C-alpha cells in the first residue's frame, strides 16, 4: 500500500508540474498586467508545433527544441502584442475575453492549414523514455524530467521577479503605471518583455506537454480549462501560488482517480470549488 | 435601387434556371462531417477516402455527374447534423446523404432521411443502433460489437482466463466494454475489474496503477483515437504492464500509425481487433494505400478513410444498378445484399439489417524488417453485428 501511495503522489505531482508549466505564463501576464489572455493555450500549441517541426525537419535534439519553443513564442508574442493586444489593455475584461478567444479560433485554423489535423508525435531521446525502479516502485523518467524543469523554472521566476532590476521594474509598472512612467520607466517596453516571458513559458510548456497529452489544432481549447483552473486556484500573479495550486490539483486529480475512479474525473472541479469558497482570491492571491 | 433589384431578379432567375437545367444530370451528395473541432482529423481522413474513390473511378456514374456538398457539424452535435441534413435536402436538393463520422451526427440526421426518403450512407459512426434509426440507412464502416464480441471469444480461446477492462466513458467505449466482456464471459472467462476513464483524459497514471494492483492476465483497452492510445500505451509500460507479462488487448485505434510511432518499442506485443489493417498484404490494399499516400502528402489511410472509400463504392454501384434512379427506396434495395472486395477484404451489406458484414482481423504488433507493424495473426470471416435483432 505504501508503494502505491508513493507512486500516486509522484504521478500526481508530475501531472501538476506539467499543468504548472502550461499555466505559469498566464499567471504572469494575467496577474502582472491584468490582461485576460485566453489565447495563452494557443501559444502553448504553437510552442509544441515549433518543437515537433525543428526536431523532425532539422533533426535537432529534444533538449535544443525546448528553448527554441520558448524563444519562438516570445518573439511571436512581441509581434502580436504590438499589433493586436496593446490596443486592448484598457478595453475592459469582456472585450479582452472575446478578442483573445477569437485568437484561439484563428490559431486553430492556422495550425490546421499549416500542419494539418493529424496528431503530432514527438520522439523523445532514449534516456528520457521508460521508467526507473527505486525501492520496488517504478518512476517514469519523463515525469521526473518534467518535475525537474518545473522546479528550475520556478526558481528562476521567483529569483527574477523578486531579486533583479527588471523584476523590480515589472512590479513597479504593474502597481502604479503613471508613477513608474513619471520615474522614467519605459512601461510599454516592460510590458512587452513581461508578455513575451509569459508566452515563451507557454511555448515551453506546450513543447513539454506533447509527449503526455498529444498535439493537434484543438490543443488551445483542450488546455484552456486546466490552465484557468490552475491560475484561479493559485491566485493571480503569484508564482508560488501557481506552483502550489498546480501541485495540489495534479495530486488531487490522480489520487481521486485512483481511489474513487467513479467520480475521479470530477474531483478536480470539486477541489476548485472548495478552494475558491474558502479563499476567493486563490491560495496566494493578493488582488 | 429599382435597377439593381431588377438586375438581381434577372440574375437570380438565371442562376435558378441554369441549376435547374443541370439538376437533370448532376447527382448531388450531401456530406455531413465534423470538419472542424476536435474530430477534424477523422473528417479529413474520411473525406480523403471519398476523394480518392472519385479520383480513381471518375466523377460520373450512370450518366450523372457527381457533386459533393460538404457541411460541417463541428463535433458530436445531433441537432446541428439534423439541421444540416434538412438544409441539404430542402435547399440543395441532394439525392443522397453521406458522411457521419460520429454516432450523434447519424442519430440526428436519421429522421430526415426517413422523412425525405433519401439513401443515407453512414461511413463511420460505429454504435450498433445507428442502422436501426431509419430504413434508409446503410453502413459501410464497422460496428464496435462486431469487432469486440468475436475478440472476447478469441481471447478465451487463447487461454486467457481473467481480464481487466479499461474504456473511455462514452457510448462507443461502453459498447466496447460490454461486447468484449460478453464474448469473453460467455466463453468462460472472468472480468476481474472494470474502470472507465473520462473521454478527454490527459493522464492515465491513476487508472493504470489500478490495473497493476489487480495484476490480471490481460487488460482490454478502448480509448478514442488521437493522442490517447500512445499516452495509455506508455503509461502501461511505465508500470511494467507489458507483454509477455500481461496481455494488452484493444480495438485497432490503439495501434494506429501515429500512436505506433509515438510508442516506439513499448507497443511490441499489443493485440488489437480491427476491420482494416494498413499493412495487410493484398494487391487491392497495396494499390489503395499507394494511391492514398500519393494523394495525401504521405499520410496513410486509416479506418475513417476506408469507410469513406467503401461508402462511395456503395453509392456508385447502387446508382449503376438503378440506372441513375436516385430515389431512396430504389437505392436501398440495390444496396441490400451488395457484396464486393474492398481493400479491407471481402465485405457485404446484410439485406436484413443494412449493416456491414466483414472479416474481423486480430493483429499483433511484431517486428517486420526492423519496423513494428500490425501483423494479422487470426481472421474471423463474415462477422455480423451481434446486437441487431438480439433482445436487449
TrEMBL record, chain A:
The keyword Transport applies. Belongs to the binding-protein-dependent transport system permease family. LivHM subfamily. The chain crosses the membrane at residues 6-28, 35-56, 62-85, 97-121, 141-161, 190-213, 266-284. GO terms for biological process: amino acid transport. InterPro entries: ABC_transp_permease, BCAA_transport_permease. GO terms for molecular function: transmembrane transporter activity. Keywords: Amino-acid transport, Cell membrane, Membrane, Transmembrane, Transmembrane helix, Transport. CDD domains: TM_PBP1_LivH_like (cd06582). One of its GO terms (cellular component) is plasma membrane. Its main location: membrane. It is a multi-pass membrane protein. This is Branched-chain amino acid ABC transporter permease. It is found in: Cell membrane.
From TrEMBL, chain B:
The keyword Metal-binding does not apply. Pfam families: Peripla_BP_6. PANTHER family: LEUCINE-SPECIFIC-BINDING PROTEIN, PERIPLASMIC BINDING PROTEIN OF ABC TRANSPORTER FOR NATURAL AMINO ACIDS. InterPro entries: BCAA_transport (IPR051010), Leu-bd (IPR028081), Leu_Ile_Val-bd (IPR000709), Peripla_BP_I (IPR028082). Belongs to the leucine-binding protein family. GO terms for biological process: amino acid transport. Residues 26-366 form the Leucine-binding protein domain. Keywords: Amino-acid transport, Signal, Transport. Transmembrane segments: none annotated. This is ABC transporter substrate-binding protein. Residues 1-23 form the signal peptide. The keyword Isomerase does not apply. It comes from Devosia ginsengisoli.
Amino acid at each position: 500500500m505504501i508503494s502505491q501511495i508513493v507512486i500516486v503522489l509522484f504521478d500526481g505531482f508530475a501531472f501538476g508540474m506539467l499543468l504548472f508549466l502550461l499555466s505559469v505564463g498566464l499567471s504572469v501576464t494575467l496577474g502582472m498586467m491584468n490582461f485576460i489572455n485566453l489565447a495563452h493555450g494557443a501559444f502553448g500549441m504553437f510552442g509544441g508545433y515549433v518543437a515537433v517541426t525543428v526536431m523532425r525537419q532539422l533533426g535537432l535534439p529534444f533538449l535544443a527544441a525546448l528553448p527554441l519553443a520558448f524563444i519562438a513564442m516570445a518573439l511571436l508574442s512581441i509581434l502580436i502584442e504590438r499589433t493586436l493586444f496593446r490596443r486592448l489593455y484598457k478595453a475592459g475584461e469582456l472585450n479582452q475575453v472575446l478578442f483573445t478567444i477569437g485568437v484561439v479560433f484563428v490559431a486553430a485554423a492556422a495550425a490546421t492549414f499549416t500542419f494539418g489535423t493529424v496528431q503530432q508525435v514527438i520522439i523523445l531521446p532514449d534516456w528520457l523514455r521508460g521508467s526507473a525502479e527505486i525501492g520496488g516502485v517504478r518512476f517514469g523518467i519523463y515525469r521526473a524530467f518534467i518535475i525537474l524543469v518545473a522546479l528550475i523554472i520556478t526558481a528562476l521566476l521567483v529569483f527574477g521577479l523578486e531579486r533583479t532590476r527588471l523584476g523590480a521594474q515589472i512590479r513597479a509598472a504593474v502597481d502604479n503605471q503613471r508613477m513608474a512612467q513619471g520615474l522614467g520607466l519605459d512601461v510599454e517596453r516592460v510590458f512587452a518583455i513581461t508578455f513575451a516571458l509569459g508566452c515563451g513559458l507557454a511555448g515551453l510548456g506546450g513543447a513539454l506537454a506533447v509527449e503526455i497529452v498529444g498535439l493537434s489544432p484543438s490543443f488551445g481549447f483542450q488546455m484552456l480549462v486546466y490552465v484557468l483552473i490552475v491560475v484561479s486556484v493559485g491566485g493571480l500573479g503569484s508564482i508560488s501560488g501557481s506552483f502550489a495550486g498546480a501541485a495540489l490539483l495534479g495530486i488531487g486529480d490522480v489520487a481521486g482517480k485512483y481511489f474513487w475512479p467513479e467520480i475521479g474525473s470530477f474531483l478536480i472541479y470539486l477541489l476548485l470549488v472548495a478552494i475558491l469558497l474558502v479563499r476567493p482570491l486563490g491560495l496566494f492571491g493578493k488582488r | 435601387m429599382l435597377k439593381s433589384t431588377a438586375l438581381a431578379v434577372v440574375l437570380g432567375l438565371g442562376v435558378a434556371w441554369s441549376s435547374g437545367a443541370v439538376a437533370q444530370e448532376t447527382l448531388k451528395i450531401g456530406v455531413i462531417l465534423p470538419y472542424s473541432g476536435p474530430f477534424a482529423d477523422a473528417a479529413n481522413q474520411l473525406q480523403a477516402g471519398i476523394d480518392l474513390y472519385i479520383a480513381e473511378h471518375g466523377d460520373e456514374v450512370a450518366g450523372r455527374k457527381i457533386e459533393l456538398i460538404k457541411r460541417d457539424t463541428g463535433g458530436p452535435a445531433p441537432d446541428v447534423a439534423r439541421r444540416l441534413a434538412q438544409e441539404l435536402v430542402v435547399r440543395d436538393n441532394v439525392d443522397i446523404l453521406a458522411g457521419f463520422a460520429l454516432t450523434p451526427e447519424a442519430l440526428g440526421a436519421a429522421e430526415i432521411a426517413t422523412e425525405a426518403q433519401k439513401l443515407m450512407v453512414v461511413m463511420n459512426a460505429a454504435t450498433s443502433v445507428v442502422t436501426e434509426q431509419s430504413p434508409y440507412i446503410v453502413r459501410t464502416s464497422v460496428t464496435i460489437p462486431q469487432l469486440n464480441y468475436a475478440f472476447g471469444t478469441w481471447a478465451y480461446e487463447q487461454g486467457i482466463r481473467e481480464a481487466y477492462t479499461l474504456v473511455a466513458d462514452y457510448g462507443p467505449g461502453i459498447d466496447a466494454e460490454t461486447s468484449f466482456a460478453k464474448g469473453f464471459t460467455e466463453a468462460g472467462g472472468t472480468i476481474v475489474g472494470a474502470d472507465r476513464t473520462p473521454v478527454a483524459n490527459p493522464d492515465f497514471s491513476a487508472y493504470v496503477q489500478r490495473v497493476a494492483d489487480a495484476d490480471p492476465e490481460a487488460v482490454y483497452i478502448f480509448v478514442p483515437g488521437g493522442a490517447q492510445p500512445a499516452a495509455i500505451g506508455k503509461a502501461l509500460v511505465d508500470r511494467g504492464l507489458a507483454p509477455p507479462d500481461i496481455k494488452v488487448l484493444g480495438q485497432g485505434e490503439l495501434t494506429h500509425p501515429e500512436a505506433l510511432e509515438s510508442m516506439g518499442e513499448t507497443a511490441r506485443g499489443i493485440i488489437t481487433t480491427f476491420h482494416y489493417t494498413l499493412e495487410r498484404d493484398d494487391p487491392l490494399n497495396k494499390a489503395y494505400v499507394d494511391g492514398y499516400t500519393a494523394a495525401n502528402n504521405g499520410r496513410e489511410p486509416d479506418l475513417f478513410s476506408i469507410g469513406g472509400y467503401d461508402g462511395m463504392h456503395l453509392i456508385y454501384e447502387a446508382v449503376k444498378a438503378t440506372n441513375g434512379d436516385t430515389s431512396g427506396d430504389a437505392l436501398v434495395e440495390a444496396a441490400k445484399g451488395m457484396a464486393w472486395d474492398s481493400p479491407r477484404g471481402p465485405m457485404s451489406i446484410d439485406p436484413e439489417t443494412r449493416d456491414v458484414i466483414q472479416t474481423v482481423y486480430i493483429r499483433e504488433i511484431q517486428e517486420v524488417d526492423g519496423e513494428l507493424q500490425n501483423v494479422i495473426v487470426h481472421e474471423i470471416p463474415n462477422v455480423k453485428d451481434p446486437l441487431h435483432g438480439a433482445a436487449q
